[in-house]
Design brief:
Oligomer: single chain
CATH topology: Glutaredoxin
Low-confidence stretches: none
Pfam families: Thioredoxin_9
Protein name: Thioredoxin family protein
Organism: Winogradskyella litorisediminis
Distance between the termini: 22 Å
Radius of gyration: 17 Å
InterPro entries: Thioredoxin-like_sf
């Protein structure tokens, strides 16, 4: 990456960070949207509003039940880098509802990690820099070194095992069916955030 391109990306990240909110503020936003039967993003449909309400319940559950092993805790707590973990998301995104509370559990273990949230459709320039196979897939976590301003790693839109499940299914069937999406939700419920934790610990 040349210096000019790197500077441009840093400027885009900086502009998005100025609009970012904390995870706690994001949770409050989703609760408010649920109460108002609406959603984030420009498209305000009943389907997306229903997904937002469902995700509010999912996040509430994971906020209370995600467990981090002593080994993972040790690795997170002993990371000395001052980092910003910036997540692109929208309230209707099912994967995000399972993943974001897990990220928060890890970020809470280390005062050097500043967990911030921005909405994808309000941060198009940022999203376009962190596409997944050309798609605006969310959630997308960008791990930024606060001292250098450099992006050290990214994570998302799904944990490794779920990504493999999706890729294998697409290869066999061409697209994701409603039945597969239900299977994926069951996998998230059974996994209880442990693959997300393992993936993130590996990136630190």
């Amino acid at each position: 990456m040349d210096v000019l391109e790197n500077t441009m990306i840093n400027d885009i990240i900086s502009a998005s960070l100025q609009k970012s909110i904390s995870y706690q503020d994001y949770r409050a936003l989703v609760e408010q949207l649920t109460a108002e039967n609406t959603t984030t993003g420009p498209e305000k449909t009943e389907v997306l509003a229903n997904y937002t309400a469902l995700n509010d319940r999912r996040m509430h559950r994971w906020d209370k039940t995600v467990k981090v092993s002593d080994e993972a805790k040790f690795k997170i707590e002993n990371s000395l880098k001052k980092m910003t973990w910036l997540v692109l998301t929208e309230s209707w995104c099912g994967d995000a509802a399972h993943i974001m509370p897990v990220i928060n559990k890890l970020a809470e273990l280390n005062k050097n990690i500043d967990y911030k949230v921005v909405l994808r459709d309000e941060n198009e320039a940022l999203m376009n820099e962190f596409l997944t196979n050309g798609a605006k897939a969310i959630p997308k976590l960008i791990m930024i070194n606060n001292e250098t301003g450099e992006v050290e790693n990214t994570f998302g839109p799904r944990p490794s095992v779920a990504t493999n499940m999706v890729n294998d299914y697409k290869e066999k069937h061409g697209k994701l069916t409603p039945e597969f999406k239900e299977d994926l939700q069951r996998w998230y419920n059974k996994d209880k955030g442990q693959t997300v934790i393992a993936d993130l610990v590996e990136l630190i």
